[in-house]
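This section describes the prediction task in plain terms. A model, or a person checking by hand, is given the sequence of a single protein chain and must write out its three-dimensional structure as a string of tokens. No templates, partner chains or ligands are provided. The sample shown here is typical of the held-out split.
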Amino acid sequence: MTRGPTRRYRYVGPPALKATVRPGAEGRRITSARDFDTWIGEQSRQDLDEPFTFTIDLDGVLRLAPRRSEHITCAAGQPVLSAGEIGFTREPTRWIVPHVSNHSTGYCPDTTSWPHVAEALEHAGLTPPPGFTHELHFRRCPGCSRHNIVRDADYTCVFCETALPTTWNIDPADDTSTPH
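The expected answer:
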């Protein structure tokens, strides 16, 4: 897959959550269909009824963890190429991905991170949907610096009513975009 510069997302959530990251608690790395089959077979019926937490690490590998897991924990405290929530449904002969979002308030990834998700899902033996099935647009307010989720195309800060930029700006000091 050919793409332009790759944005690496640093954790921008509460520092107290980052401080709880412990080795061995990270999400399971899924590098192949076999890895996915093993991991999904370990999940309870109850877990399968909810979306899971996912991150795409800097190697482009899908990491999966239970939904109640923090993205920073799933990512082992590291920057990511994308993050969000994902669901799986069993069809007669395969697992499918009926929904996947970029909903991660810890990393606030842009919707442009989708190609990394699609590629990681393909490596896991899963057919990705054409894009995020539920896209969130994160913006940092230039007035109060708080993070917002844009709803109904209303680019107004919910905290101080300042106009929000129309392009992603959560971590503008992070100059970790690299050519890919």
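For orientation: The beta strands are 28-30, 52-56, 62-65, 82-90, 95-101, 137-140, 147-150.
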